[in-house]
Amino acid sequence: MAESFLEVAQQVLILFVLVAVGFICGKGKLFQESAAKGFTNFVLTIVVPCVIVQSFQRPFDPGMLAGLGIAAAAAVAAHMLGILLAHLTLRDRNRAREKVLRFSVVFSNAGFMALPLQQALLGEDGVFYGAAYIAVFNMVLWSYGLVSMSGDKGNISPKKLLLNPGLLSIAVGLAFFLGSITLPEVLAVPVGHLAALNTPLPMVIVGFYLADARLLSALKDGKVYWSLFLRLIVVPLLTLGGLLLCGVRDVLLISIVIAASAPVAAAATMFSAKFGQDVELSVNLVSLSTLLSIATMPLVVSLAQLAA
Asked: Which residue among 30, 133, 248, 281 has its CA within the 20 to 30 Å range from the CA of 238?
């Protein structure tokens, strides 16, 4: 247990060194928020799709395809579990606060925090299964997440639901995988270089936003603690238990648990700002959960490694 914990902790700490670089950039005003938003869009629309496509560059394997389906089903279950727990246990007289608190339980930072850790601990196989989690994340985000934050079912857009970069890259990667298609070197090398940015850039962005967080107010809020307890401990441990009961093991198990144990998704702040909810609360939840994940992710993931 101790060895597994230290292995994961080391990888998480490496990520947080990069977060510290972003924090310094934020405090030193080395770049502005507009630049951070541009980097975020670049990561989501270019870098993450390259990581996903690269992970699908492998000969077709029926066992891997079956694992991809299991990963998608597990991701659906993890999100549904978060929705159930959030609605059963989190209530607030202030509807704007309630929406943000619930959203933060459901959505993990599966792209920014989980993919780099999956890549570091598990290699391309971990990212392969992590891609299924991201696909489900995007579908739940642009359906339940959109309605829960906006309060209007009319905001659901089939175009946004199906034509977002995460799903498109998975569709392209899956086509390559099913056909055992290998990209020519002139494309594979640039894709590899862009994919390599997936570890440093997201972490620097997270650190940049941490620099402006007002964590003292969050530390005095009991419902923030409960929301983060559900997000960082309860959902990932119940996900781990459910997967073990279903007989899931090895890389597939660990990859899904990494995604489920990640801190609050940055989308909490983006959606809060877009739909006029409690933006400061969302920033505090994202920031505080990211800091706490230094301890919680190694604990949960090392348990998964032992069980696998």
From this structure: 281
Enumerate residues 6+ apart whose C-beta is below 8 A from 286.
104, 109, 209, 263, 264, 265, 266, 268, 269
* Token pair 């928020």: residue: 33
pTM to 2 decimal places = 0.88
- Other CB atoms within a 10 A radius of the CB of residue 282 amount to 28
Residue type at position 288: L
**Nearest in space to 231 (alpha carbons), one of 256, 203, 259, 252:** 259
- CA 141 to chain centroid: 12
Contacts of 214 (CB under 8 A, 6+ apart): 280, 283, 284
Which residue(s) pair with 264 in the sheet? 108
Q: Cα(301)–Cα(253) distance, rounded to whole angstroms?
A: 10
pLDDT tens, per residue, the chain with 308 residues: 566 677 788 888 888 888 899 999 999 999 888 888 888 888 878 988 898 899 889 999 999 999 999 999 999 999 999 999 999 999 999 999 999 999 999 999 988 788 889 988 998 899 999 989 998 998 898 889 988 998 777 666 777 777 778 788 888 999 999 999 999 999 999 999 998 898 888 888 888 888 877 777 778 889 999 999 999 999 999 999 999 999 999 999 999 999 999 999 988 887 887 788 988 898 889 889 988 998 999 999 999 999 88
Distance CA 289, CA 33 (A): 21
Query: In terms of residues, how long is the chain?
Result: 308
CA distance 195 to 116: 10
> Which pair of tokens denotes residue 299?
């604990």
CA–CA gap between residue 218 and residue 221 (Å, rounded): 5
* DSSP percent split of the chain into helix, strand, coil, nearest 5: 80, 0, 15
